[in-house]
Amino acid sequence: EFQLGLVRNLLQGEVMIPLGELNRVRRRLVEELKEEAVVKDGRAILARLMPQRGVVDEGLPELRVLCRSLEQVVGCARAGVGFVYCDFEDLKDYREAVEIARKGGMKVFLATPRIQKPTEIGFFKLIEKAEPDGVLVRNLGGVSYFKERGIKTVADFSLNVANPVSAALLMRHGEFENLTVSYDLNEGQVSGLLASAPPEWFELTVHQHMPMFHMEHCAFCTFLSDGTSIKNCGKPCDQHDVQLRDRVGQLHILKADVGCRNTLFNGRAQTGAASVDEFVSLGLRKFRVELLEEDAKQAARLVGWYQNFLNGEGEAQDLVRKLGAIERLGVTKGTLEQRRGEVHY
After folding, report:
1. Per DSSP, what are the bridge partners of residue 135?
2. Residues paired with 262 in a beta bridge
């Protein structure tokens, strides 16, 4: 990092100084230079890393819907949705989903698994062969794979975009169409992010059953079969609906993915409807609704309510009341609830 350029001896007379003393002085100078360099560059580097916000888009909000079954894709087509994501347990259904979406005039992006092992590159190939409009990427391996092939991508929540610096880094190196806002942020923190980076970068999940944890262990295989892996379990996940009861008695929904990894979804749906007006005022235009167990009719109804709301028809409390009536456990603001911990960049 540093190179000694010149040593000038100004000592007079026959003075003896141990060589180790010279080394000590050299080390001390290097440490002082490092400290000064860190302090000075720290401010300059942060300024360089922070993105420029630009002009706020004045267009209408756009609704995007994540579907977890072919039936839900059909429901979205009937509701006149313009953009869908597909997140299926069986990736072989992706090609049919793309066909349904295209016939319904919808743009369609297909989701990767959240975790991708080196031996599972075939999952990416199945997605590519389905010829979607783009891919909802959930791991860094997918970023590299689809970028190299010129396929459009949207970064999902698992890439954890929680601040403007991480957002700028992913946009620069991943060349994403959009970034999904991290699920770790509350309402105030989302507002802080939108105020400090180009809001057109972002997409917010406004309705979902929050994924509480994702695990390698497959509860379907362990408790509903005598097998030990997908090779001999008989795929009970295709035959049974499973819910897990927590310590207070609430049931949560368990789903398996193509890699036999399990995700536990909160039994109560979460809606950010009450915060939409604020986010729109900050320039956010892309909102996502994530379906879970809805059939085609239920999907069309739920999506229709959000479409009307984003088009300015009705108030947030009216939408929340409707959602509470159809959700078994009602709805909550969930992670968006508290404004504590607001961050100003």
Report:
1. 110, 153
2. 215, 256
Is the CB of residue 305 less than 8 Å from the CB of residue 329?
Answer: no
So what's the pLDDT on residue 196?
A: 93
The set of residues, in sequence order, having a beta carbon less than 8 Å from that of 243 and lying 6+ positions away, is 251, 252, 253, 254, 267
What is the SS3 assignment for 68?
Answer: coil
pTM attached to this predicted model: 0.81
Helix (H, G, I), strand (E, B) or coil at 306: helix
On the question of pLDDT at 160 being above 80, the answer is yes
Buried/exposed code over 97-121 (b: 16+ C-beta within 10 A; e: otherwise):
bbebbeebebbbbbbbbbbbeeeee
Give me the half-sphere count of Cα atoms (radius 13 Å) on the Cβ side of residue 186: 10
pLDDT of 54 above 80:
no
* pLDDT higher than threshold 70 for residue 249: yes
Parallel, antiparallel, or unpaired for β 286-290 and 202-208? Answer: parallel
Q: Which domains, and CATH codes, for the chain?
A: 62-210+266-336 (3.20.20.70), 214-256 (no CATH)
Q: Is the pLDDT of residue 331 over 60?
A: yes
Q: What is the DSSP letter of 55?
A: P
The larger pLDDT score, comparing residue 192 to residue 324, is at 192
Query: What are the residues whose beta carbons fall under 8 Å from the beta carbon of 33, sequence distance 6 or more?
Result: 2
Residue with tokens 């005022």: 281
